[in-house]
Design a protein that fits this description.
Distance between the termini: 13 Å
Number of strands: 7
Oligomer: single chain
Shape: elongated
Order of helices and strands: HEHHHEHEHHHHHHHHEEHEHHEH
Strand order of the largest sheet: 2-1-7
Strand content: 5-15%
Structural class: mainly alpha
Largest sheet: 3 strands, parallel
Length: about 375
């Protein structure tokens, strides 16, 4: 994307891996240099340091080759739609790049965001002199935060919360279960509000009296007959199994019955539709099953959120004490801050202005990353239809 109304149109390239997207990105970068654009006004981003280094290396190598070899120069000129590119001009561009390497923005999104965050540390309420920590150091912080939760929280409350998450599986310790929960859901917790964890509706359960009435009605229901006029044993057996599971309030087992599934979804059992009397008798029990299982899921969501909330408080405290952040923390802080929504402030703090935005592997950009990039992208494309 280019802000200046030049011959460089906004372009999106969709192609499979290895099709030459990065090659086209370097073409665009070199073409901008050849059009007298200042290198520090071009932001070229990708997702790994290796890829960012390869982009810059490829640009320098292609220009150097063009400066030394007329044939390579002709090929480069054709690729960037500059047929009059000369080795002398290519040499000038190499020199221009070399003199501005410290100001170039061929980097990962993470490193670009880190640079912005360091310029807005006070507004973002980041720890003083913070730094990015590696995975082992972060894992150590998480383990320490989990141990702090176990030490400082009421054991009865923790036991209750973990019980909500266990789902009948008692094979893991409390610490292991919290650790797994943190590994699976902490990133989601950081990107959502409590309201998102409370959106599962809680259906009303039937009373014990109503449940007993429903089971009694099912026990007495008539089942389909065989051709000989006798009760169909398969149907009677299914009715008995459903009553047994409902009486034990084993709703998972109740739901496994083929007759129950057919009644719930309008299917067939032993190649016959469920007769209305059986379907009606099963109705309250199916409603109870739904209410119990959905409420159980809602309880687990609530328990998960409460445990994650307790973990996160200790984890953030440790991060602040040790001044260590992950790239995800930096991105999240930027995306949530109104202070960095104005591109003028970003440019002022960075002492640089972005006129051209080249995003490699854009499909891998997260929503949070896009929230940070969007003000710049909006300004760069502001002159377009």
């Amino acid at each position: 994307m280019s802000r200046r109304p030049t011959s460089f149109e906004h372009t999106a390239i969709r192609a499979s891996a290895g099709a030459g997207k990065t090659y086209q990105l370097t073409n665009r970068f070199i073409a901008l240099l050849a059009a007298e654009e200042s290198p520090d006004r071009v932001l070229a981003t990708t997702f790994t340091r290796k890829a960012a280094g390869e982009i810059l290396e490829r640009i320098l190598q292609r220009l150097a080759a063009a400066a030394l070899d007329p044939d390579a120069c002709a090929q480069l000129g054709s690729a960037i739609d500059r047929p009059n590119l000369s080795p002398k001009r290519a040499c000038e561009l190499v020199g221009k790049l070399a003199r501005n390497l410290h100001r170039l923005h061929a980097r990962t999104l993470d490193s670009f965001f880190a640079r912005i965050a360091r310029s807005f540390a006070l507004e973002l309420d980041l720890p003083p002199e913070w730094q990015i920590i590696d995975d082992p150091a972060d894992s150590s912080l998480r383990d320490e935060a989990i141990q702090a939760v176990l030490r400082e929280e009421d054991p009865r409350l923790l036991t209750e919360l973990v019980r909500l998450l266990a789902g009948g599986d008692a094979s893991r310790s409390v610490a292991e279960r919290i650790g797994r929960l943190v590994g699976d859901l902490h990133a989601l917790y950081c990107e959502t509000s409590r309201d998102a964890w409370e959106r599962i509706p809680r259906p009303q359960r039937h009373t014990a009296e109503r449940l007993a009435e429903a089971i009694a009605a099912l026990e007495q229901v008539a089942v389909p007959l065989t051709k000989q006029g006798k009760e169909n044993g398969n149907w009677r057996k299914a009715v008995g199994a459903a009553c047994k599971a409902a009486s034990a309030e084993d709703w998972e087992q109740f739901l496994k019955g083929g007759m129950v599934k057919a009644a719930a979804h309008g299917g067939e059992f032993y190649r016959e539709p469920v007769p209305p009397p059986i379907r009606d008798a099963l109705g309250p029990l199916i409603e109870q099953t739904r209410a119990v299982l959905v409420n159980r899921l809602a309880d687990r969501c609530d328990g998960s959120y409460r445990l994650l909330e307790k973990f996160d408080a200790r984890y953030r405290r440790l991060q602040r004490t040790q001044r260590g952040l992950r790239f995800e923390d930096v991105t999240r802080a930027l995306a949530r801050s109104a202070a960095v929504q104005d591109y003028h402030d970003i440019y002022f703090r960075l002492d640089a202005e972005v006129s051209h935005l080249l995003l490699d592997e854009f499909q891998d950009t997260s929503l949070l990353q896009w929230e940070v990039v969007r003000p710049i992208a909006a300004e760069v494309t502001s002159h377009a239809d």
